[in-house]
Structures are given as structure tokens and as C-alpha cells.
What we know:
alpha/beta, Rossmann fold, 3 domains, 8-stranded mixed β-sheet, 6-stranded parallel β-sheet, 17 helices, 18% strand, globular
Amino acid sequence: MKIFHCLKNFLPDSVGGTEVYVAALCKALQVLGVEVAVVKPTFRKEPQTYFYDGIKVIEYLETSRPDALLQTGLVPPEGLNNFKHLLLQETPNALHFHESAGSNGITIFHLLATKETQIPIFTTFHLSGNICMRDNFLFKGKYDCNGIINPYKCSVCMLEKKGLPFLMPELLSFLGIKFKQNISLNRIAKIFNYPLYIKKHKERLLKVDLCSEKIFVLSNWFKILLVKNGLNKNRIVVLPPVIPSKEAASIEVKKPSFQGAKVRFVYIGRIARIKGLHILLKAVLNLKQQNWELDIYGSVSELEYHDLCKSKSEGNTSINWKGELLHNDVINTLFNYDALIFPSIVQETMGMVMLEAFAAKIPVIGSSIWSVKEHIMDGENGFIFKVGDPYALQLILEKILNEPYLLQTMGSTITLPLYIDAAAKSILLEYKKVLDSSSV
């Protein structure tokens, strides 16, 4: 069985949650006897085939530059023919797509081209942006949204994000729907295009459903929203929540006990606004207690945001910026702390670092996004605070600093998460069902 996994970026050049998950999944599938390879575009003149940690990576040349035509899905990327040629040369039994919404990366056109070859397609949705273009399922960034894609509502929300003044998003969205114009690249006309952008976004989602034999998701809440948006519930498989690093999870480290020491909090994640680090900093900088430390690990995705956050913490000796952390070191690093703070302001489909904290037997203090509420029982294995609310987080931290033994009590009751091979076995089962039936 030869399965190709398709995504825009891969290790070691890009280290994100999706790339780490796919690498771990490929390794687990290899152990189960599956021949795997990663297929990705390259923007260099010479595509390469190389190996990363025993995983074959095959590149194809992509020359398109992101522009409005590509981003709105009006034209396919120029490298699509190179992708199709690769499939004809390599003849995989199936393709497993891990993204489908890129402009010049892996797009819906790649799924449609694969469908024409009659090669079976599997898809995993890793990002909430596959449904919500704003990523947080908060209407205008403030109000809970039902997650159903609607051209008018979503257009208003996206225009508000652009900073348009009071009632202008509503007016422009209304006019965009009423006049049903074709997408225009004119700078002024673009603001009337948002209902059409949203409509095409929904159409792409439904096309992924029709192209795929099975769609894998990383949480129950995401399946519920996909079904609400018209996808076939019988195609959707919810994978078990897993961590990618079995070796690290199996290491036994004796955690130190409190003896008047400071409570050690940790943040691990990208330094980007959507991860909510500014919420965390505002909360800790308001604390009057002195018995705490916060270490911050993460790669810098937004330099200006990083500099702003760092400037706010300047002079505070309790806050330590530790730089980027190699993923294989995450769990072993977490063993040295008393709690992970997970302040994300977008809907994470799974929240891998949260599960890795559980592997290290430490509780999580997380924002009230759906993936957090799916895994954290408030007051039992962690605490939940209102998303985007630094004062709610501050109250929880004050409670912990006044009663630090709460964290130790929680740590002793945390259930260890599953390893990636549990997800790999579920996926392999679906591969076999489809490929066995197609060979009959």
C-alpha cells in the first residue's frame, strides 16, 4: 500500500502543528507496513527528492505567486500540471491531503485533478479556517457564532476585521449580495466581493467532501460543524486525540514538590497574536503576588507582535523569554513546570501542546475555545477562562498562587493521552476499507 501525504510545507523547513502531526503519522504508518511519502510544492527552480527522518519527500515545481485570482480560487496554480505528472510517474494507491485551501500550495484544484485520475482521496482538516475564515468562530471578534457559513453574516464579520466603521460592513455586504457582481480585482470594487468570497469558500469545502472517500477530523466539535455546513456525516471520521512523541511520553521524571518555591508557569507556542500571548502577559503583569515565574517558548511568526510583547515584559524578572523549542523536547521540558497556560484566541482543532502537557502530568489553564472544553474538566485537570479575557485569567492565577497545591492535586489525576499510533491504526483501517472495495 503506497500512500502519498500532500501539504504545502514540511519539516525541517517549516515546523508547525500540521507538519509535526503528519511526520509522526507517516512514521507510525511505516511501522504498520504502509509505504508513505510526502508530496509538497517547491518554489526553487530544481525540485528535490530527499528523506527526512526516514520519510521520503517528493517536491514538484510551483511557479505561481499568491495573488487575488489564486486566493479566490478563480484560477489553478501554474504548478498543477507538474503535480499531475508526478502522480502519473509515481502511481500511489491513494492520496491523503492535509490542506486544500492554499492559493499556490495544495489547493482544491489538486483534489479535483487527483479525482480525475481515479486515485482515492483522503483528507484531514487540521485548521479551523477550513470553516471559519476568521479562525475564531466569534462574530465580529466578540460574539459566539454557530459556525454555519453564511455569505452575508461572514462577509460582515470579515469586513469588520478590516476595520471598517460602524454599519459599513453591513451595508457593503448587503450591496454585494443584492447586485451579485462577479469578483473584481479593482481595489475599490473588492470590498463588495466579500459575499462571493464566502460563497466560494463554502463551495470549496463541499467539493472537498465530494472528492474525498473519508474526511478525518481531530475533534468532535469540528465534525458537528462540518455536518451543519452540509458535509456527509458518514464520510467523517473523528480521530482520537494523540501526541506525536511516544519516546518522550514514556520517560519517567520525578516532579519536584512545592516547598515554598515559586509556581512555574509555561507558555509554548508560536509568537503570534492568534495564540493570545498578549492576554497572558496582561494577566501576569497585573498580579500582586510575587511567588511565580513564567517561561515563554516559541518561534516568532510575527516580529512586530513579538517585539511588542517583549517590551511589555521588560524589567520583570519573573518573565523569561526562552526562544524556540525543538518539538522533540516539548514534553521533557514541560516536566519542569507546574502548569501550562494556553491562551489561544482562535479555535484550535486539537491543541497538541495541551495534550503534551497532560503527557507530562501537568494541568492546563486554557481559554474557553471548543478544543479546550473538549479536553479540560474545569477544576479537575485544569482551569478554563473566558477566551480573550485577561482579567478572568488573572483571577485563576491568583487562586493558584494562594493555593499552589491545587496544581499538584490535579497533576495526580491527569489521564495520559494516546500516542500517534492510535490515530494511525484508525486511518489505516479506513484506507483498507476503501482500497479493498475498489479492488473487488
